[in-house]
Amino acid sequence: MTVPLVTGVAAAAYAYCGVRRWTFLFAVPAYLATLPLLLYGLTRREFVWSGRRYRWTGVYDVTVLDHDAD
Fold it and tell me: In the list 8, 14, 26, 32, which could disulfide-bond 19, CB 3.0-4.6 Å?
C-alpha cells in the first residue's frame, strides 16, 4: 500500500508542477533512504562543506578544522 501511495503522490506533484519526467519513480528509494541517512548525519561530528572540514561540538558551536582551504 505504501509504495503505490508514495509513487502516486510524487507523480501527482510532478503533474501539478508541469514536470513531465519519469524520475518520480525514484520517490520510493528516496523515501526508504531518508531515515538511515538522517541518522547517519545526526551521528557524525565532523563534516566537509565546500572543501572545508568542520567539527560540530554543540548545538550552535562549529569549529573550522581546515583554515587554509580555498
Answer: 14
